[in-house]
Amino acid sequence: MIAIIDYGAGNIRSVEQALNYLGIEYVLTSDADVIMNADRAILPGVGNFKDAMDNLNRLNLIEPIKAFVKTGRPFLGICLGLQLLFDESEESPGVKGLSLLKGKCFKIPASKEFKVPQIGWNSLNFPKKCELFKGIPEGAYVYFVHSYYLRAEDESVVSATTDYGVKIHAAVSDKNIYACQFHPEKSSAVGLKILENFVNL
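The structure corresponding to this sequence follows.
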């Protein structure tokens, strides 16, 4: 059973639809006990860094998320869900993230060539082997919707990168923590394969 952590994130429905398509059993929940009893957990997210942390605080979900990660069971952050795993974001100065991994999110620099937010498909490079991308070829395209990008402090956790005016740490993996800046649930067959790989970890 996968727990999709419900804290009012904007892409929850699309994550549900993808798991339904794959025939994967899940529960949408903000209940700490349900999360702790799940085999895997997904932290989705679209929106503002501060609003998301405020919602996690209001729903008393911060400690349950950290406790779940400590169990060693697979945990997946998606889009804003990736950013929240780190220390902070330029989007919301002074607001602390979950700090499960070290790093900061920065505003994508806008230019004539690179519009912000980035909305669309971009290819992935894989600097290290990661089970999440098993069967996914180098250069595979996935779907992004974001204005801020991760710069992980420890680049050894970076499992995928992309370029959009700057080098973007597009995915990370560290022990049982996995996260994608892009949306696997909106990335067609490639994204469905990534979700399937997560289920099979």
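The chain has a mean pLDDT of 96.
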